[in-house]
Amino acid sequence: MKTRTLPVSKDSILEACKILRQGDLVAFPTETVYGLGGLGLRSESIRKIFEAKGRPSTDPLILHLPSPDLKQAAESGVISDLVPDFARVLSKRFWPGPLTMILPRGSATPLEVTAGLNTVAVRYPAHPATRGLLTELQEPLAGPSANRFGRISPTDAQAVLQELDGKIPLILDGGECSTGIESTVISLTGATPTILRPGAITAAEIAQVIGCNVISDNSSLHDKTPAISPGTLASHYAPQTPLYISGHPIEYFDSPYQYILFTSKNPTLLPHVRILTQEGKPEVAAQNLYRILRESDSLGAPAILFDPIPDSPLAPAIRDRITRASSGTAERRNGGWLFTARTKN
Ligand code: TXA
Ligand code: MG
């Protein structure tokens, strides 16, 4: 199959809708990362998504809604009528935006989307191109990140092509994603709202809006079998180059958000030092993270070493992605580096 890339326009959105309605897939930009879209209520399209990504069918998908109105989503059977009050409050405050809510599944949502669960992930994205596409489509669009399973999420059209060339007919090119890491995922189906994946919308912001405690430590979810939220598997988003996290700030340069691209594990050889944000801005670090990891990967270095990520509201989200991409930790020892493989519990 030949994969075409078209800039977002009225015409390319119409073309995308035509392809989607035929049951085929289209990659689309969002504010977080690029998604791999298929009609969310059609099982055949959903199966094609899993196949193109090489994703196990046990890992559920997010539905991107055509409207932020949860009542409408319930009426059309996407979510159940039992919409928790918190969900209404959060949708009013954070949609459109990078927040995904796990809610009780409605009868119109196929079990293929939810990997057999009776809950469904929904989000109403902020990117004008995504909203343009959804408005034209007028139905939910299933959209996991447009990468092959276990690989780094794409944040521009070129990265999508690298991942899915020949597997899908169309990529809508909406430029570089502004957030750069995937949406915050919060489950609202248990007694206490629980963050399953940290993102740009933080647990503290959510707790403040709903006025109650939010569970934000998702580390206990990692490597559970069966996975509570399968995308929270400890090993995920991995570059091909082994990535290590330094126990202490690396002393080469005095800049936060730096990381080192080793030309060799031999520390006497001069390493490449790269910096996620020259200005020390966490939102710029998040936006650049996947693109720079992808670039670094293509250089074929034997290892990547990350500084500890400094504290900021975005730190849990950035640390989550880097930790899950990592092979282990590194310590300075006797003028060299001691690499320790991560133990997976
Ligand atoms: O920013 C984003 O959310 C991007 C853009 C394209 O919207 N999408 C994205 O999708 O990151 P994906 O499939 O790569 O990640 C969805 C996450 C996974 O961790 C999945 O396990 C979790 O949401 N998830 C989906 N449905 C769930 C459910 N019913 N219960 C628990 N976790 C769920
Ligand atoms: Mg993903």
Structure keywords:
DHBP synthase; 28% helix; ten-stranded mixed β-sheet; 16 strands; single chain; alpha/beta; 345 residues; binds threonylcarbamoyladenylate; binds magnesium ion; six-stranded mixed β-sheet
CATH domain class name of the largest domain: Alpha Beta
Strand order of the largest sheet: 1-8-2-3-7-4-6-5-9-10
**Portion in strands:** 15-25%
Bound molecules: threonylcarbamoyladenylate, magnesium ion
Span between N and C termini? Answer: 41 Å
Broad shape: globular
Q: Please identify, by name, the CATH architecture of the largest domain.
A: Alpha-Beta Complex
Total count of strands:
16
How large, in whole angstroms, is the Cα Rg?
A: 20 Å
| CATH topology title of the largest domain | DHBP synthase
User: What is the overall pLDDT average?
Assistant: 89
Parts with pLDDT < 50 across at least 5 consecutive residues: 223-228
User: Could you say how many structural domains there are in total?
Assistant: 2
Largest sheet: 10 strands, mixed
The CATH homologous superfamily of the largest domain corresponds to DHBP synthase
**Secondary-structure element order, as H and E?**
EHEEHEHHEHEHEHEEEHEEEHEHEE
Question: In summary, what is this structure?
Answer:
The chain has 345 residues and is of the alpha/beta class.
